[in-house]
Design a protein that fits this description.
The chain has about 375 residues and is an alpha/beta fold. The chain has twelve helices and 19 strands. Helix 8 packs parallel to helix 9. About 50% of the residues are buried. It binds zinc ion (ZN) (2 copies). One zinc ion binds next to helix 3.
């Protein structure tokens, strides 16, 4: 079968929309027809090389080539065919993509931490989860799929552990956003910062991920939510979705948070800028209260090894710095759970979609993201 897909041939290149050959699903696999795909910043991290093993290290370690690669890891789709041995899904089921596969059996899954499933360790390696071989080819050459999903395509073959069944009556755009960005932001606030009623919270960067940390903080009962973002449109939007204050920088937030917390500072600071850099940590920890938590959600370049941090304050003020992946969520629980909050009117998802694009408009969509025009851009397939 042939399909159309947005393929990346190397870092700092445009996406190429081209025809790709797709095989039948093998053991444990599904053929999914994608209805919508979120244009997440993580795909952009692959384009810029932040999330790619540098070429010299890749060659030295004898790792396989990263490119060509079908992009996209946020998705909503319908199962069109199943391979042998598929037991959790059937043809016609509506699914959300799960960029972290969940086997349900490894020690991480069994202890309720499926966001750290052992299968996830290999999501950046080429080949299918089932046997490491390719199901997609262009000109006879195998193509990798981002997070083993490749949702920037009309159809791809994925493993059943990478799909979560969802209700068929949900809008595909909402399902696609919950499959990564929404859950990542929401869970950073609710699961990882452990926000309690009355807390003072600062969210640094209120784009597609941070805006959902704002929503999570609000639902968890935060008293003060300060949104920090240089883009005025994003500040305004954060105020609409639950932030109590909005400022342009962490420096500007400093006196405001001091005043609002009567000098105590923030119970939780959540770092969700477009790219995480080491120099963002010190000002974030200055905003963090004694005994408070600073959650680092944003992706840093893979080679970023240093960060500014006052180690005296870290220990003496008993502050905590916590990393987080997928909002410390469990895909099979959190994706349907958050979609339930959406159906109940408590989580805003339709409002997050600034602009929809066709697959052919993908490069325009990413340019709009770089220009700060979008909270979220989503590809909608015909
Ligand atoms: Zn597992
Ligand atoms: Zn994502």
């Amino acid at each position: 079968m042939k399909t159309r897909a947005a393929v990346l041939w190397g870092i700092n290149q445009d996406w190429q929309v081209e025809e790709v050959e797709v095989d039948e699903p093998k053991e444990g696999e599904l053929l999914v027809r994608w209805l919508a795909a979120g244009m997440c910043h993580s795909d952009e991290h692959v384009v810029t090389g932040d999330m790619v093993v540098p070429e010299d290290i890749r060659v030295a370690m004898g790792l396989p080539e990263n490119f060509p690669m079908i992009g996209g890891h946020e998705g909503a789709g319908i199962v069109e065919a199943v391979g042998p041995g598929v037991s959790t899904l059937q043809v016609g089921d509506h699914v959300a993509a799960s960029f972290i596969p969940a086997c349900g059996r490894c020690s991480w899954c069994a202890s309720g931490r499926t966001n750290q499933c052992d299968l996830g360790a290999a999501v950046f390696a080429p080949g299918q989860i089932s046997d490491g071989t390719d199901r997609h080819r262009v000109g006879g050459k195998g193509i990798a799929m981002l997070a083993k999903l490749g949702t920037f395509a009309e159809r791809t073959v994925i493993h059943e552990s990478s799909a979560v069944k969802v209700a068929p009556n949900l809008p595909p755009t909402a399902v696609a956003l919950v499959s990564c960005g929404v859950t990542t932001g929401f869970g950073s606030a609710v699961n990882r910062a452990d926000i309690r009623p009355g807390d003072v919270v600062v969210v640094v960067g209120v784009g597609g991920v941070g805006i959902n940390a704002v929503q999570g903080a609000k639902l968890a009962g935060a008293k003060v939510i300060v949104a920090v973002d240089p883009v005025e449109m994003k500040q305004k939007f954060a105020l609409d979705l639950g932030a109590t204050h909005a400022v342009a920088s962490m420096e500007e937030a400093q006196p405001l948070v001091a005043e609002l917390s009567v000098g105590v500072m923030a119970d939780a600071v959540i770092l969700t800028p477009g790219v995480m850099y080491g120099n963002l940590l010190a000002p974030a920890l200055t905003l963090t209260a004694k005994g408070g938590t600073c959650v680092v959600t944003a992706v840093a370049p893979m080679t970023q090894m240093t960060a500014d941090i006052n180690l005296f304050e870290l220990a003496m003020w008993q502050k905590e710095v916590r990393g987080v992946l997928f909002g410390a969520g469990n895909p099979r629980y959190d994706i349907p759970h958050l979609l339930g909050l959406y159906q109940a009117g408590q989580l805003k998802l339709d409002e997050l979609v600034t602009q929809t694009y066709s697959l052919d408009q993908i490069n325009q969509g990413y340019q709009d993201m770089r220009d700060g025009k979008n909270i979220r851009g989503v590809i909608v397939f015909d």
